[in-house]
């Protein structure tokens, strides 16, 4: 999954840079504390400033900042490359307190929902290897579609449509949830996202079930 790979790469690199900077600063602080420990009489410098040292300091910080900005922008570009084929579309509606998934390209007009109570969780079915455009909106308050394992999250607003495109490269099932506090049963507002083969997905669009746990189809 591109999103998860890019997120992992950026997080690992930026964490390593942050750790390196932290250790350097910690070492300098410890060195200063040891040099000026109690009982020692340091000789004050007669120089009001150190322009060469300050230039090096500013240069190193600028280099780190420029690198991180350029790296992050490049990875963001890699993550959001335009799809090489027309994406399939799924309409996602959040409501208090569950989800509804509609497939406007389905000849059978497949629509899936649930109550998000117990095991009655709706399943968002997508094909592997094909870009999928999710169009998110809300029927009442702000919700947020979040799939932690895949690193996808986007808010769903009333009277507004947010979109993002994902591509899953292998079959599987992952749990998603609402990441925006939306009321009394926010904690139970979960769903499944299930990636199936393109052939099975096409059969699903024609109204053939793919198994249990897909909520209530209408």
TrEMBL record:
Matching entries from PROSITE patterns are given as:
COX2 (PS00078), COX2_CUA (PS50857)
Membrane-crossing segments per the record: 6-34, 55-74
User: Is the Transmembrane keyword given for this protein?
Assistant: yes
Report the principal subcellular site: membrane
Q: Where in the cell is it found?
A: Membrane
Q: Which Pfam families match?
A: COX2 (PF00116)
On whether Cytoplasm is a keyword of this UniProt record, the answer is no
Q: How does it sit in the membrane?
A: Multi-pass membrane protein
Could you tell me the keywords of this UniProt record?
Copper, Electron transport, Membrane, Metal-binding, Respiratory chain, Transmembrane, Transmembrane helix, Transport
Report the residue ranges that make up the Cytochrome oxidase subunit II copper A binding domain in this protein.
85-207
| Reactions this protein catalyses | 4 Fe(II)-[cytochrome c] + O2 + 8 H(+)(in) = 4 Fe(III)-[cytochrome c] + 2 H2O + 4 H(+)(out)
Q: Which residues form a coiled coil?
A: none
Superkingdom as given in the UniProt entry: Bacteria
Say what the protein does. Subunits I and II form the functional core of the enzyme complex. Electrons originating in cytochrome c are transferred via heme a and Cu(A) to the binuclear center formed by heme a3 and Cu(B).
Q: Its family?
A: Belongs to the cytochrome c oxidase subunit 2 family.
Protein name in UniProt: Cytochrome aa3 subunit 2
Which species is listed as the source?
A: Streptomyces carpinensis
Q: Which gene is annotated as encoding this protein in its UniProt record? A: coxB
